[in-house]
Amino acid sequence: MSDLILVPGATGGVGQLVVSKLLEKGLSVRILTRDAAKAEKMFDQKVEIAVGDIRQPKTLPPAMSNTTSIICCTGTTAFPSERWEFDPQPNIFEWGQALFNPQLIESKAKNTPLIVDYQAIKNLVESAPKNLQRFVFVSSCGVGRKNQFPFNILNSFGVLDAKEKGEAAIINSGIPYTIIRPGRLIDGPFTSYDLATLLKTTTGGKLAVVLGKGDKINGDASRIDVAAACVESLFYPQIENQIFELVNQGTRPDKIDWQHLFSQISNS
Ligand SMILES: NC(=O)c1ccc[n+]([C@@H]2O[C@H](COP(=O)([O-])OP(=O)(O)OC[C@H]3O[C@@H](n4cnc5c(N)ncnc54)[C@H](OP(=O)(O)O)[C@@H]3O)[C@@H](O)[C@H]2O)c1
What we know:
alpha/beta; Rossmann fold; 8-stranded mixed sheet; two-stranded parallel sheet; 11 helices; 10 strands; 35% helix; 19% strand; binds NADP nicotinamide-adenine-dinucleotide phosphate; NAD(P)-bd_dom_sf
């Protein structure tokens, strides 16, 4: 069976770059999206499109058929936004309570971190083919130090709690995995609702890639390098069942040596 890589979250910032990198490598790509029209426009018939919602397990089997690896780039915002899909909209009194009583706001939303980054990841894992070669998951720096600044602020609405549970669902499934925890995402496509997006913060392609273990490093991470790490990891058996952080720091070499970076992680 030839390789077929499924990309849930392909219409997002990292997801679009993952698709482009996979195509550059000559791999067959199937994307999972809730919005076929948007995806058709975006990918110009270069990928197979499966329509599904990771919150709804019944929509997932068509996307999984013959899939050999998954690179999961789904996510929602860490703080309440329209991406949380409020129904009904909270009233002014409830918004006023948001930081003291996050559950009140969450109970009115359908696409929160707990749902997208944990429950829906569990759905993906449970629907995945039994012989899946790799599940690559984009998680986040800070999962291992949720109580330290600035991650305690980032986790105000539970995004790091949810990512941690999502990671655990993947690890406990027995499926070979690679979990990548980027720092704050910069470089386009700018799809988030945060300061880096507002300011269009970029590395200018000048910063090196630094990988870490044990959730100790800090910094911004280029979406371009996060996407490259997701795709490259498929080609390196030594990075199977590894969790690592990724940030950009220092002077960029002419070529990123993924073999060297991954062996540092697998040997540490
Ligand atoms: N922003 C940061 O600083 C930061 C830092 C560390 C880690 N991360 C993580 O990095 C990853 C990529 O971030 P990004 O900014 O590139 O993401 P993004 O642009 O916000 O894209 C999110 C993707 O998830 C999809 N999605 C959301 N809910 C879904 C659902 N219920 N069913 C199916 N698909 C769904 C969206 O599809 P639609 O087009 O249908 O909405 C979109 O393609 C995310 O996991 C994020 O948590 C972000």
